[in-house]
Write a structure and sequence with these properties.
The complex is a heterotrimer. Chain A is α/β, with parallel strands linked by helices. Chain A contains 21 helices and 20 strands. In chain A, the strands form 4 sheets. Chain A has a 6-stranded mixed β-sheet, with helices on both faces. In chain A, a hairpin with a 5-residue loop joins β1 (about 1-10) and β2 (about 15-25). In chain A, α8 (about 200-205) packs parallel to α21 (about 520-535), α13 crosses α14 (about 385-395) and α16 (about 415-425) packs parallel to α17 (about 445-460). In chain C, α5 crosses α8, α10 (about 230-265) packs across α11 and α10 packs antiparallel against α12 (about 285-315). The radius of gyration of chain C is 24 Å and the shape is flat. The chains are: A alpha/beta, B mainly alpha, C mainly alpha.
Chain lengths: ~550, ~280, ~325
């Protein structure tokens, strides 16, 4: 139905975005495109709409829909194809909703004669079909509801081709399941073909029939999903699949050689709130409620929760950026001030934060090495050659080329930026390292490297780590203990190994169910296909 | 295949020549602007006559390069003398307005209660700047520093608003937070983190502000608040001689052209720079 | 829905409060500025030969001996009641002095505003349709150059060429004593063109930038990828997002017109508020200056408030609560 032949797309400075990519999509089948960041997945998805982003251009190749090259179609024909036959959901589906239009208008304008009516479409995405949703503007709905409206709008034309670009990265588990069922319905009723772009290999294993692995704009491996994900041949595919965290894979014993006697950090009954907006629209959010936990030397505690569960607020309380409304923080048994300004140099140095977005944490007009040096001087009082020697040592410790340290932050890759940020935190010789979603912006392989680096550092220095993440499978790979946050409350805390076997809180169970497991999904699919074969044979 | 690739190479080369052409235009504009500035500053030294010297009948079109003005003085000489105020006052006033606005804007962005500063600026923004300028002229006379003061008062509401908007994301950036976390002091953060990142956007805004300053100074001269006779500026020359436009049009056109030779290249260059900063 | 209504009412009240507060602050600054003008009004009225006794009597009559805050309070109170007082020069009521000029200026400004809005929207539409095209580049350079031309220079050129050389239109905009500018529309043409070239070019640039910003929003891209007709993408998805900034730009033309009118009225000898202001400041005629200043500031404030209200109505996410 759709054939992409030798598609070559270049970006600014003639950079290769897609290099001779050929794929074909068949009715009723789902093709998944996986690969690291910058592999060209999104560009491929948009090419199926006959679209190349501004600043890029198609150099060669074609995209044939029912035999006609989309890039050669007149504007009106291309528009009709998108209008009548294609649905596209980008990474952040809610962003496709025009804020000045009501829900019903947004869905209505995508409907066709053959389509279900708006009520039905809303029911399909499990939203109330009465005026409580239909007459509303997008901003009056929760983000989850907005995502569902975006789905209803996308499929309102009963498409024959579905393009899903990283749909699961911003969507909660229930909405994910809903999306899956919608895809299945369109596949069964309309014989729709699907292109699934994802870094989440477990959901690929669940949904896809075939997989292509992209790396730097080239397809390095292709084949059936079961085959590629279970026994990849290409070295990049292998690396990608082995770096993907899997909640069901048992980790080697992770008991820390921590002395249980005295915790390094004690958090006692911390509550914190912050104000959102100003003036009339001001609202107070209770971000943390009576949170208590300890952290021992050489131990890693993972704090898990969805977005808005209060994870980052706790990190900010610990470093003194957000004075809590109640509770206290003890370092080596001594109370530290809630205010950054009233902490002394050693207290500030002892708790260091590695931020979610390392690039933004470096002054854009100075080199990253300069930022690390500043931390060395300020926190440890070193200067001159002592400071530069220390810088060289730190760069070696985080395995960052000293030449890169002379560059400005935006000239480094995401992984290099994160290594620099870790070096800057280590410059203060902290006892506690707080990592706030530090791998969220990285692709799977780089994420694995950063996690390996952190483990290495912990083995060498017996530093305590608070690893804040929404990704339970990732935390499971190396955290000794885990705490689950829900709505600002710590609902469960305990050793990771026990937690995955026997979660106590309902929220924990949900997180555990939603955590990706490639091995488990593959096993389930194999069994299912095996069963169908058995049925077919009998 | 090769033909497509070849076309692409050509297209890339084409966009490169376009880039080169653009920077060539920018360079030409810069040379033009520098020439006008040079002439304004050093004009009095190369002027054929003195600014007050009567050389012929009023509005004589056939004397000298541009003829004579309403008092029979040489227009070219007066143009060479009349550039200094219209160039130097806006430059000084814009620099000061940007500096003051920068300080106020950074303060407003850094303070939790910034409403006071911005409210005051809102009030000054709605009072016609020409009224403030006129009151100042009557109070102190049309001296150079009064003109500069009028420009500064008229500009500060806008430079402050702009500086606040530019400083806010910097002051609340992750890198400033990082500097605070390692215990860096506020003055050091200001010097090392805030000012270097604020300088370029403020400079871009100053370029656009400069046009407004030239406007106000020229308009003041035009309304009769130019420098005291026999001194002059290009704005005053236009208003002095517009009545004789039928006799010697060059007495009006020449100073008008000089103002445009100052404002148009400045605006084109400032716009170009502002775009580069925004990118 | 009731919540929405409640929100709108709250918003309107808030707007009115801020409008009144700004006007009060403006009145205070105006009063102080005029107080600060040099010279003694009594001396100016009676001339240099006046005896000290007569000066004292006049000062008393004019309440000039009262403390400044008291005089400000009295002036504010009578102004609030609609009484603008009398000219200290001619004993005419301020209302009578500025009535006709205010009407003249209003007609000039409204015509110029309409011309500016039309020119700006047209140029923005032409230039914004395809970024990087030849038309778009030409319009961009032309508007940028036009923005750099002070209105009195355009006026000077128009007077020299169209007025004096060709004699097509009056070089001087005298308003007939028994009529309004609209009864002789030809006198408005050159002043309006002088104002509209700069204003229209400036507005076009800013509006184009606002539309370009809206066009880059993800929901507009999404609407295009959804295969909707281009007219629908423009009218339903793109332009509604561009309305608030566009209205802001148009409101910004009002202070430009207020300032520009002073110069343009002067050059065309147009009997408007701007000409009056220049004359009365020279005469130190405090009540008239204050009245004109208030009118000018109030028109700017009202324009900004109207723009904000239109922006409010056009943005559902501001208009309706969560």
């Amino acid at each position: 139905m759709i054939e992409v032949n030798d598609l070559e797309v270049r970006g600014s400075l003639n950079a290769q975005i897609l290099d001779g990519v050929s794929v074909s999509l068949e009715p009723g089948k789902t093709l998944a495109a996986v690969g690291g960041s910058g592999a060209g997945k999104t560009t491929l998805g948009l090419a199926l709409l006959g679209f190349v982003r501004p600043g890029m251009r198609r150099v060669d190749g074609e995209v044939r829909f029912d035999g006609r090259d989309m890039f050669e179609l007149p504007e009106s024909e291309l528009r009709r194809l998108r209008r009548e036959s294609i649905a596209y959901l980008p990474q952040n589906p809610a962003s496709t909703l025009t804020p000045t239009m009501r829900v019903e208008a947004l869905i209505e304008e995508r409907r066709l004669g053959r389509s279900q009516d708006t009520e039905k479409l809303l029911e399909l995405v499990q939203l109330p079909s009465d005026s409580s949703v239909r007459r509303r503007f997008p901003h009056q709905l929760s983000i989850g509801q907005q995502q569902r409206v975006a789905m209803a709008r996308a499929i309102a034309n009963e498409p024959r081709l579905l393009i899903l670009d990283e749909p699961t990265s911003s969507i909660d588990p229930t909405t994910q399941r809903l999306m899956l069922s919608l895809v299945e319905r369109l596949r069964d009723e309309r014989g729709a073909a699907t292109l699934l772009i994802s870094h989440d290999l477990a959901s690929v294993a669940r949904m896809a029939d075939d997989v292509v692995v992209l790396s730097h704009g080239e397809i390095v491996e292709r084949g059936s999903a079961l085959r590629v994900l279970h026994s990849p041949v290409d070295s990049y595919s292998k690396a990608l699949i082995s770096a993907s965290p899997d909640i069901a894979v048992d980790q080697p014993s992770l008991a820390p050689d921590a002395d249980e006697s005295a915790p390094v950090l004690e958090v006692r009954g911390v509550s914190a709130e912050f104000n959102l907006g100003r003036g009339r629209g001001r609202r107070t959010i209770r971000a943390a409620q009576d949170v208590s936990f300890d952290l021992a030397a050489g131990e890693t505690l993972a704090l898990i929760g969805r977005s808005g569960s209060g994870k980052s607020t706790i990190a900010r309380v610990l470093v003194g950026l957000h004075p809590p409304g109640a509770g206290e923080v003890l370092l080596n048994g001594l109370k530290v001030s809630p205010h950054l300004r009233r902490r002394d140099r050693n207290q500030r140095a002892a708790i260091q934060l590695v931020p979610q977005n390392p690039e933004e944490s470096f002054n854009p007009r100075r080199s990253v090495g300069d930022g690390i040096l500043r931390s060395i001087r300020q926190a440890r009082g070193l200067s001159g050659s002592a400071a530069t020697d220390r810088l060289a040592l730190l760069l070696a410790q985080v395995q960052l080329d000293p030449a890169l340290a002379r560059r400005r932050p935006h000239e480094l890759s995401g992984g290099e930026q994160q290594r620099a940020a870790i070096a800057r935190a280590l410059a203060a010789e902290p006892q506690v390292l707080i990592c706030d979603e530090i791998t969220t912006a990285l692709d799977t392989i780089v994420q694995g490297q950063i996690v390996d680096l952190l483990q290495q550092i912990q083995r060498d220095t017996r530093i305590s780590m608070l690893f804040i993440t929404h990704d339970l499978a990732l935390a499971h790979e190396f955290a000794h203990r885990v705490g689950v946050l829900n709505g600002g409350k710590l609902v469960e805390i305990g050793p990771m190994s026990e937690f995955v076997r026997n979660p106590q809180a309902a929220e924990s169970q949900e997180l555990l169910d939603a955590a990706p497991s490639l091995s488990r999904t593959l096993a389930a699919r194999r069994q299912a296909t095996g069963e169908t074969r058995a049925i077919a044979a009998s | 295949m090769t033909s497509v690739a070849g076309r692409e190479v050509l297209a890339a080369a084409g966009s490169r020549t376009r880039q080169a052409r653009l920077s060539l235009i920018a360079a030409a504009l810069l040379v033009l602007l520098l020439a006008v500035l040079f002439m304004a500053v050093f004009g009095p030294m190369i002027s054929p006559y003195d600014r007050g010297e009567v050389v012929s009948l009023p509005f004589a079109a056939d004397v000298g390069v541009f003829g004579t003005d309403h008092l029979g003085r040489d227009v070219l000489s007066r143009i060479l003398h009349g550039g200094r105020p219209i160039v130097i006052i806006p430059v000084v006033a814009t620099m000061l307005a940007t500096l003051i606005g920068g300080v106020l804007g950074v303060a407003a962005a850094a303070l939790r209660r910034d409403d006071v500063i911005m409210r005051v600026m809102d009030v000054f923004a709605v009072i016609p700047s020409i009224l403030i300028a006129l009151v100042l002229f009557h109070r102190f006379g049309a001296q150079h520093w009064v003109l500069a003061l009028a420009v500064i008062i008229a500009s500060i509401p806008f430079t402050t608003r702009y500086a606040r908007a530019a400083a806010f994301p910097i002051i609340h950036s992750a890198y400033v937070e990082q500097a605070r976390m390692i215990g860096e002091s506020a003055p050091i953060i200001l010097i090392r983190d805030v000012v270097p990142n604020l300088a370029r956007p403020l400079l871009a805004d100053a370029g656009l502000r400069f046009i407004g300053a030239i406007y106000l100074v020229a308009a003041a001269g035009f309304l009769g608040f130019g420098p005291p006779p026999p001194s002059t500026d290009w704005g005053s020359m236009i208003s002095e001689n517009i009545g004789g436009a039928g006799l010697n049009p060059w007495a009006t056109i020449a100073p008008s052209l000089m103002v445009l030779l100052l404002t148009i290249p400045t605006n084109l260059l400032a716009d170009r720079f502002a775009r580069q900063v925004a990118r | 829905m009731t919540a929405g209504l409640h929100d709108a009412a709250q918003y309107v009240i808030w707007r009115i409060v801020s409008l009144v507060a700004t006007l009060l602050a403006v009145s205070l600054i105006l009063f102080a500025a005029v107080e600060w003008l040099p010279g003694d009004p009594a001396q100016q009225i009676l001339g240099m030969n006046a005896t000290p006794e007569r000066l004292d009597i006049l000062r008393e009559q004019l309440n000039l001996n009262d403390p400044v805050p008291e005089r400000y309070g009295r002036w504010l109170w009578s102004t609030l009641q609609g009484d603008l007082g009398e000219s200290v020069r001619t004993n005419q009521s301020v209302r009578a002095i500025i009535g006709r000029p205010a009407l003249n200026t209003a007609m000039l400004a409204v015509t110029a505003f309409a011309a500016i809005a039309a020119a700006a929207l047209l140029l923005a539409a032409l230039g914004g349709r395809r970024d990087g095209s030849r038309t778009s580049t030409v319009i961009s350079v032309t508007t940028l150059s036009a923005v750099s031309v002070p209105e009195f220079i355009i006026a000077g050129i128009l007077i020299s060429i169209v007025g004096l050389e060709l004699g097509w239109l009056p070089a001087v905009s005298l308003v007939p004593s028994d009529g309004t500018p609209f009864s002789r529309p030809e006198i408005l043409v050159l002043p309006v063109i002088s104002l509209a070239i700069v204003g229209g070019a400036y507005g076009a640039r800013l509006i184009r930038a606002a539309v370009a910003d809206a066009a880059r929003m993800p929901h507009v891209q999404a609407a295009r990828l959804a295969g909707l007709a281009e007219s629908r993408v423009l009218l339903r998805h793109l332009l509604p997002s561009a309305i608030p900034p566009t209205v802001q730009v148009l409101a910004f033309m009002v202070p430009f017109l207020v300032g520009g009118a002073v110069v343009v009225e002067r050059i065309f000898a147009f009997p408007g508020l701007g000409s009056q202001l220049v004359d009365r400041i020279a005469l130190r005629d405090a009540p008239v200056i204050e009245a004109i200043g208030l009118i000018q500031a109030a028109s700017v404030i009202v324009a900004f408030q109207i723009a904000d209200m239109i922006g409010f109505l056009a943005s559902p996410n501001r208009r309706t609560a969560q």
